[in-house]
Amino acid sequence: MNPEIYADINLPFSPLAFTDEQLELNALKVELDRFYHWSVAQFESNMDIEILVHTRAKFIDELLHRLWQHYQLPPQVSSLFKRNRIALMAVGGYGRGELHPLSDIDILIVSDAPLTKLLEERIGELVRLLWDLRLDVGHSVRTLKGCLQEAKADITIMTNLLESRLIAGSQNLVNDLQKCIFADKIWPSAEFYRAKVDEQIQRHKQYHSTSYNLEPDIKNSPGGLRDIQIIQWIALRHFGGISLKEITQFNYLTTEEIKEIKNCRRFLWRMRFALHCVITRYDNRLLFDRQLSIAHLLGYQGDGNQPVEKMMHDYYRVVHNITELNQMLLQLFEESILALNPQNKPYSIDEYFQIRDKLIDIKDNDLFTNDPTMILQLFHTMLLNPQIIGIYSNTIRQLRSARRKLDGLLCEYPKARDHFLAMIKHPEVIKKALLPMHQYGILATYIPGWKRIVGMMQFDLFHAYTVDEHTIRLLLEIADLSTEQGQKKHPNSSKVYAKLAKPELLIITALYHDIAKGKSGDHSELGAELVKDFCQLHDIDKKDSELISWLVRYHLLMSVTAQSRDLQDPMVIREFANQVKSKTRLQYLLCLTVADVCATNETLWNSWKQSLMRELYFLTLRTLDLGSHQIPEQRSIAREHKKEALQILVEQGFDAHLIEQFWLDYRFDYFLRYATEQIVWHAKNLLNHHLTEPLVFINSKPFHGGTEICIYSPDRPYLFATVSNELSKRNLNIHDALIITNKNEFALDTFIVLEPNGQLIAADRHHDIIQGLQKALKQTDYKRVKVKRPSSKLRYFSVPTQVNFLSTLSDRKTYMELIALDRPGLLACLGEVFANLELSLRSAKIVTIGEHVEDFFVLTNKDKQALDEQSCTQLREAIIQAIDNMDE
């Protein structure tokens, strides 16, 4: 805070002039409301945001000062309280004179000695009034000695006190406090520096150490306001009250960099002020359902989501600049504050670069300007010298300067391409070169099209990051496949990755897989064409180039097939194998798919998805080995399952004749569509059961990475809806359903379910779930349970309902795909539609992708045949109408 600017602020009306009548609760609410609306009007009129946040702080200053007088607190009536000095102080952000509409108002009441009872009562009345006014006041009451003890024990309290200032009371007491705080006895500068840096590291981890979350926190995310405050706090502690501007005399920041920090802070302040105008409770998160309103308030124009895209693109540019400046300054502070060993002199690597305390540094500040290809050589040198852990602050500064002066792309220089091709083949290239190249904005100056996806929003709940950040995380997932941690997380994929002849082809694929997002057309097809040009420019072998282009074009194929198709259907595997064509493509595609899914969202990968990928991989591998024309016929597969199951059951002591009699009720389709272990599990539970009674049983072992629930019940309309209802009521997510009806019209349906967090159902829940399902099965009248309305976050998205019927070689089944907004009770609703139209559900794959679902259903009519065109039209209309009715 600049004291001169703060003193010159003119308030629209001064609380210091409030009469005693105006200090009553209701009257004060009116005055605060009047000031709030004045502030919003000034904001919309583009008042300087610095003046606006300082004006609010000054308004609260004068209000507190007047209330201090109103409650006759010292020094006005010091005779009542003997000689005890007391002061009301602003601390924290309020101490800096920065208040947004919903900011916390942190105050400290400090005194020489413990407060008298009368003082406690009057201060209590003041604080209660502030709370009744619904001001977010955080207050502490301490003695001077207590303040110093607390500050010594807690870095947060120490930080708040560094920015403290007097509002009312004894200035001498405040001077004594600040004199002690800035002494070396409490949090010496070096200890304070280390503590604040550690604090920043831990805070960044809470946001996955990236600025590119799609719903960032303006204050606390990497590159946010807190990263600017860290710089201020460290400078304040070390230099004792020096402002950022005054730091220039110590050669820490140039005038241009000071201006850049202020502009970045001004942008974030405006965004935060707008956020506080949109919401009613304190928060700093740019959630999806707030972004459009904030963008409009900030003056961004356009159709649909264009205002948000423009706003967030500016936001990501700003936080990237703050991150670079923060890192550069913390390095400079470290050298000064920690007083690094003067004997630790830089030592030379070659004629261009040197190592300074494990950081790479350039010898000539004009190196990058004179020869831009040296930027690529910098990262190549880092890669070849494992002792280097980062880039020195001066080199960061020169990189930033050179990057802004570039006229074209670095890949246009043959020497730069040589460096890139050499780096891409190095086993550590992702973490040691590509990651820092992205962090310092160099990928955008090298790869054609990368600059366009930097900070590009993805408007869904499926992706957690911007397009460029997702791509970087995909690369990091690929790198982890060769680590011990990656081998534990992805046992199959890591083995396949180790066999890849040219891992660098996978890296180029990853860089380009989403590079065409946001363009008009299919981003996979457009990206495949763009990567061909990249490969040609870099003289990549034609065969390798074709593989990379194919992988970019079909990078979603394996994920869609595994999650949305019936893997027990040989025709599905045959079609997938025909598209893949070779083991080499399959191996690269598996690694790419697994990394892509994991890099999309921290919570997306689970044991169910892992199981599906593994199953599809091995089924396809077997098909490619045999040749698609040699795949066993369906009846042959069914006979094999039946034979294996019989052998296992007999070995476990079951009578073979009894088993054969039991299986007479089941058609070959049952043995085709269920795996051997499932057939054995069913038989063990049903052979000793009265087969005319319903039964529910849960597998104690995971199947396909999920918990398997089996429903044996007389087939009837609304059976699928009933089960879906009950499972939804218990907050369980259905991922897969297989529906079989035997010759006696009994259903044997299996559901693969998981908890909302992707975990298996705990064993201690099994009994209650079984009881609930059995009770539901006994009810003769179906009635959908009332479910909670979609969250406000879901309501922010608009997903048009699509019902697509997929082509199939079978004339006995209809394949239907549903794309719709996710809603509680959706599956039960669909089950009702199927029952009303007398359709039989054969199987279902349930895939939730953020805010929408992409579900796959296999259906037949009541004659067990595929639906004709008229029936498909009728079904589509019924589903759309039923889903529309759910929202009413």
List the SSEs and their pairings:
Layout (H helix, E strand, L loop, with lengths): L2 H5 L17 H20 L4 H22 L15 E5 L1 H4 L9 E7 L5 H16 L4 E7 H10 L1 H8 L2 E5 L1 H11 L7 H18 L18 H15 L4 H4 L7 H24 L9 H10 L8 H32 L9 E2 L4 E4 L2 E4 L4 H4 L3 H11 L5 E2 L1 H13 L8 H11 L4 H11 L3 H4 L3 H4 L13 H14 L3 H6 L1 H8 L4 H10 L10 H15 L4 H12 L3 H8 L5 H11 L2 H18 L6 H20 L7 H18 L4 H8 L4 H6 L2 H11 L8 E4 L8 E8 L4 H11 L3 E6 L7 E9 L11 H13 L13 H4 L6 E5 L7 E8 L4 H11 L3 E6 L2 E2 L2 E9 L8 H18 L2
Parallel strand pairs: 2-3, 7-8
Antiparallel strand pairs: 1-2, 1-4, 5-6, 6-7, 9-10, 10-12, 11-12, 11-15, 13-14, 14-17, 15-17, 16-17
Give a structural overview.
The structure is a single chain. With 888 residues, this protein is of the alpha+beta class. It is built from 40 helices and 17 strands. Strands 9, 10, 11, 12, 13, 14, 15, 16 and 17 form a 9-stranded antiparallel β-sheet that branches. The protein has a 4-stranded mixed β-sheet with strand order 3-2-1-4, sandwiched between helices. A hairpin with a 2-residue loop joins strand 6 (353-356) and strand 7. Helix 10 (225-239) runs parallel beside helix 14 (306-337), helix 16 packs parallel to helix 18 and helix 22 (467-480) crosses helix 30.
